[in-house]
Amino acid sequence: MAGQKGVSLKEVADKAGVSTATVSRVINSKTVVKGETELRVQKVIKQLGYRPNRVAQRLRTTRGASKLIGLLIPDIQNPFYVDIIRGIEQYAYAKNFAIVIGNFSQNEERQKFYIEILKSESVDAFIVAPFPGMNEYVKELVEEGYAVVCIDRGLANMDLDVVKVDNYQGAFDAVEHLINVGHTRIAHISGNTLIPTTIERISGYEAALNKYGIAIDRDIIVGRNSDHKSGVELSAQLLDMSNPPTAIFTSNNLLTLGALETIHSRGLKIPEQVAIVGFDDMYWAMSLNPPLTAVRQSGFEIGRITIELLHQRIADPTRPFVSIVLKTELIVRNSCGFKLKGM
Amino acid sequence: MAGQKGVSLKEVADKAGVSTATVSRVINSKTVVKGETELRVQKVIKQLGYRPNRVAQRLRTTRGASKLIGLLIPDIQNPFYVDIIRGIEQYAYAKNFAIVIGNFSQNEERQKFYIEILKSESVDAFIVAPFPGMNEYVKELVEEGYAVVCIDRGLANMDLDVVKVDNYQGAFDAVEHLINVGHTRIAHISGNTLIPTTIERISGYEAALNKYGIAIDRDIIVGRNSDHKSGVELSAQLLDMSNPPTAIFTSNNLLTLGALETIHSRGLKIPEQVAIVGFDDMYWAMSLNPPLTAVRQSGFEIGRITIELLHQRIADPTRPFVSIVLKTELIVRNSCGFKLKGM
């Protein structure tokens, strides 16, 4: 920070006999009651005529009106969450929110850690995609008076503002499409079954099979984590069966990309040898081999609504909780094929 | 935070006549000198026998030893930065660093804003991919005593710890490969030319053409921003020329995905009708149509080294600055073709 008359932050610190960090804290402090150190630093600032730069000043002036929002993301490698982040940031600025992101990599302990870190850094509100085992922690945030909005899923035992999509219907549509083009032996690679989203997608898958009188075979419903590695390995496991499926419905885009890797590395043709439909569309899906049929959920729109709900919650902490459920859309491209021969 | 005897944070706040946020601040404060409010809150905490939960306590105990690191990312939509984040987080935990991410979406004003926000939130160190116009801000951070490591590019007028790749050689290898399989009319879609990385890649492109005596045609070197939209539009502009290129070298993966979208939407065959090689490999590149030939730079490894340098810098603020330049690797798949007929 270059000051008036060229006085630097470091010169102030040296003269006051404290660290630059302490000077910075004194400048930025909102506390009215001052200790001995604070008074000494302020005296030196005055003596030297130090003036912090304009951006920093404007920031301090506006921080009273602006809010710092902690955004806890389960997996930044998942393009769906990247879309949510884009939506959140696009609309956050209009509401004078600054967003700091903690990526906890689907790790429960790390999510706890980030909540505590962000609390100690005086975050004003939280946006969370709750991970298994986090119910109590998110409840505590609400009880402590933080504004909280949940994305992608809510909590089992507590009402909260939630923005999500109709996972059941999205999965149903994907599997019905596979049935309509002639498949009956349809596998499902699910995500982590402790996450409500996963369970809703399994239900939609089963409901579509039931509607068409296709028996559910538990051997071809496989799931581990909602990541790329699980997609690679579980698709290999399915294709190695003596009676492999003719089609796979994957529960998220990391699983889809993993399954595609296995299918391509074995030189299998899609959809002739194995069809695939994925939950989550990706903006490059038309450049995949072949162009991917996928269930589109708008992460960007989830982000927009999240900011709107958070804004309303901060303005009126007592307003009733709402759950916003967005429709999904099946984007039909070329990975499921058309009516199979002889069916 | 459930306390001993079931006393909640809110009860403490009510009895002290302050907000829960104030109680939380008093508990978390490292300041020795106490004001009137602080003393009152502490008295109530003692009276009620309130005890914050164990995770929070452990956190406060260890925060002296742990560091909060601000990570400023130019564009979270770019899978290359996602890889860097993964590498940084993987190794941060071993060093007792917690990472908070600010995504500034290639916006200079927003990057300034995040630096100021994170400074006011007492971040201990910064990891930055400097954006055009940010030189002075990053310099100030160093002058104010923050440990800083730059990723992907350094600053023009200041020595700093930098972790990057050999952009010149990576670009050279990609273009030489196109020449080796028979192309002579090779276009380049570059990124933002205010970013040093972009300039180094253009130099590598030109050097390869020069080595093989191919005249440089400025009409087929096009560039705007380092994003998907620019890839879509600039590739369309190239393909619309009366004398279009037979091959395109793209400067990053968002540009590559954009160019692929244009090529596929026009129904053109790769590599027969137009070849493409991209800087940046993607983990799903083998599932693209066709499997993409690409220059691989390891974002994960950049992340690992960044944490190592930051750790060393914090331990010894006076050690000499280093610039770590990692080698790239050309991954040859099927998007450039083999020796063209008649050449």
From TrEMBL, chains A, B:
The keyword DNA-binding appears for this protein: yes
Key words, A-Z: DNA-binding, Repressor, Transcription, Transcription regulation
Residues covered by the HTH lacI-type domain = 7-61
Q: Where is the HTH cro/C1-type domain?
A: 4-37
One GO MF term attached to the UniProt entry: transcription cis-regulatory region binding
Q: What's a Pfam family this protein contains? A: Peripla_BP_3
PROSITE patterns from the UniProt entry: HTH_CROC1 (PS50943), HTH_LACI_1 (PS00356), HTH_LACI_2 (PS50932)
Asked whether the UniProt record includes NAD among its keywords, one would answer: no
Cleavable signal peptide: none
Q: What is this protein called?
A: Transcriptional regulator, LacI family
